Amino acid sequence: MDSLIKRLREAEAGSRELDIAVMREAGLSMSMIGLTVPGYTTSLDAIVALIGEKLPGCEWEVGYDSAAQRYSAATNPIWWFDAPTPALSLCVALLEALQSQEPAPPFIGRGET
Predict the structure, then answer these.
(1) I need a labelling partner for 73 at 20 to 30 A (CA). Which of 28, 55, 84, 99 fits?
(2) Would you say residue 112 lies in a domain?
(3) C-alpha pair distances (Å), 54 with each of 6, 25, 26, 28, 57
(4) CATH number assigned to the domain comprising residue 91
(5) Burial call 48-80: b when 16+ CB within 10 Å, e when fewer
(6) Is residue 111 part of a domain?
(7) In this predicted structure, what is the pLDDT of residue 65?
(8) Residue 77 CB contacts under 8 Å (≥ 6 apart), including other chains
(9) Span 24-30, average pLDDT
(10) Would you say residue 70 lies in a domain?
(11) Looking at residue 43, what is its pLDDT?
(12) 9: exposed, middle or buried (C-beta count within 10 Å: 0-12, 13-18, 19+)?
């Protein structure tokens, strides 16, 4: 997921390729949504709907930093992440929130003695 987050933050604009990658990381498949992939990386309506589906009750916010010329997005719990467009920043915020819900990998340390 980290590599997709990096790609979203570095993208100049959204794309179908990124939409499909976001869809997959959110746990959706083509058979679940039909033949048309929503424009998660280009449409605020699409990404907000996905946030509502994957993070029920989650509040979200988008801001603009004119000095950096970047958009920042937050989900609740607070996750602020920047990207070149509002939809891309919300995609990053969603994926970061989903990633934070994943269980931590088991600790692999030295065996007991």
Answers:
(1) 28
(2) no
(3) 21, 11, 7, 10, 9
(4) 3.30.2120
(5) bebbeebbeebebebeeeeeeebbbbbbeeebe
(6) no
(7) 77
(8) 97, 100
(9) 87
(10) yes
(11) 96
(12) middle
Confidence at residue 80, expressed as pLDDT on a 0 to 100 scale? 65
pTM (2 decimals)?
Answer: 0.79
Residue 74, pLDDT score: 67
Domain that holds residue 21: 2-101
Counting every residue written for the chain, the total comes to 113
Residue 90 lies in a domain: yes
Count of domains for the chain: 1
Taking the C-alpha atoms of residue 108 and residue 98, their distance in angstroms, rounded to an integer, is 24
Instruction: Indicate whether 104 pLDDT > 50.
Output: no
Give 30-74 pLDDT, tens digit per residue.
Answer: 776 667 889 999 999 999 999 889 988 877 888 887 777 777 776
